[in-house]
């Protein structure tokens, strides 16, 4: 047993000696995040490489992001199916959406400080969803490096624990979706009217009005149509929730 430990440590030291400074840093930081030594550092190098405009560019995180999205969806779906044996399809779908939606994935990536692991390229601007994209790319790399069972264990024990998943149970991800569900149950008609506005500084914003039947109940402005509608729906929710227990009617087991 002691001899086995000696050779394991020896091989680990030999492997580290062959790593570049960049790969050694990446391997060390990922060990802290994943709780285990990565085996194929090239996968993680790809997971934390940005796309650039060069025709001869190296591989970047996007393919692993695609794979990680599917792997994460499968692992979370199986976890929810086993955790909530009496929940119907609608509830399971809502819970999965709360976990894998872009906002939550961005938060998970930000908490792990995944952008610190990027190969810095001054000419490339980071998008607002980069942290979530890197989180999915990391999962894709972990899946290829360790296969499904170990990947599942790392996700549910290190990256997205059941206790964190439980916290999302009562979290509202989309006020617009919540109002739609509530209005359908109540057989009421909710309508969104969104148009562009030019402000005094010539900046273009979107203003959204929320109608409940013939009554205009809330409005909001934002930099995109989607954001304006969600913000207006949030304001409408708080107004309507004073009169009716919308949340109490939204959870179905």
TrEMBL record:
One of its GO terms (biological process) is rRNA processing. One of its GO terms (cellular component) is cytoplasm. The active site is at residues 69, 136. Homodimer. HAMAP family: RNase_III (MF_00104). It is an enzyme of class 3 (hydrolase). SMART domains: DSRM, RIBOc. It catalyses: Endonucleolytic cleavage to 5'-phosphomonoester. It comes from Chryseobacterium piperi. NCBIfam families: RNaseIII (TIGR02191). It is found in: Cytoplasm. Residues 174-242 form the DRBM domain. Digests double-stranded RNA. Involved in the processing of primary rRNA transcript to yield the immediate precursors to the large and small rRNAs (23S and 16S). Processes some mRNAs, and tRNAs when they are encoded in the rRNA operon. Processes pre-crRNA and tracrRNA of type II CRISPR loci if present in the organism. Residues 27-147 form the RNase III domain. Belongs to the ribonuclease III family. Its EC number is 3.1.26.3. This is Ribonuclease 3. The gene is rnc. InterPro entries: dsRBD_dom (IPR014720), RNase_III (IPR011907), RNase_III_dom (IPR000999), RNase_III_sf (IPR036389). GO terms for molecular function: double-stranded RNA binding; metal ion binding; ribonuclease III activity; rRNA binding. Mg(2+) binds at residues 65, 133, 136. Its cofactor is Mg(2+). It comes from the Bacteria. Keywords: Cytoplasm, Endonuclease, Hydrolase, Magnesium, Metal-binding, mRNA processing, Nuclease, RNA-binding, rRNA processing, rRNA-binding, tRNA processing. Its main location: cytoplasm. CDD domains: DSRM_RNAse_III_family (cd10845), RIBOc (cd00593).
């Amino acid at each position: 047993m002691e001899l086995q430990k000696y050779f394991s440590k020896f091989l680990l030291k030999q492997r580290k000696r062959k790593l570049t400074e960049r790969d050694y840093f990446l391997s060390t930081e990922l060990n802290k995040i994943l709780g285990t030594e990565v085996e194929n550092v090239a996968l993680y190098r790809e997971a934390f490489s940005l796309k650039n405009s060069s025709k001869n560019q190296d591989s970047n995180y996007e393919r692993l992001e695609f794979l990680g999205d599917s792997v994460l969806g499968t692992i979370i779906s199986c976890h929810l199916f086993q955790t909530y044996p009496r929940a119907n399809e609608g509830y399971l779908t809502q819970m999965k959406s709360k976990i894998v939606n872009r906002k939550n994935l961005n938060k998970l990536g930000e908490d792990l400080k995944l952008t610190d692991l990027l190969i810095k390229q001054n000419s490339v601007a980071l998008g607002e969803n980069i942290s979530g994209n890197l989180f999915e790319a990391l999962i894709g790399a972990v899946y290829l490096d360790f296969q499904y069972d170990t990947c599942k264990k790392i996700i549910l024990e290190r990256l997205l624990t059941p206790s964190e998943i439980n916290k999302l149970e009562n979290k509202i991800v989309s006020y617009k979706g919540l109002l739609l569900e509530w209005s359908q149950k109540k057989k009421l008609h909710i309508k969104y009217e969104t148009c562009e506005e030019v402000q005094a500084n010539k900046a273009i914003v979107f203003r959204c009005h929320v109608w409940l039947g013939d009554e205009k109940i809330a409005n909001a402005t934002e930099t995109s149509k989607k954001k304006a509608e969600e913000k207006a729906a949030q304001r409408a929710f708080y107004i309507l929730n004073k009169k009716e227990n919308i949340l109490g009617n939204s959870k179905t087991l």
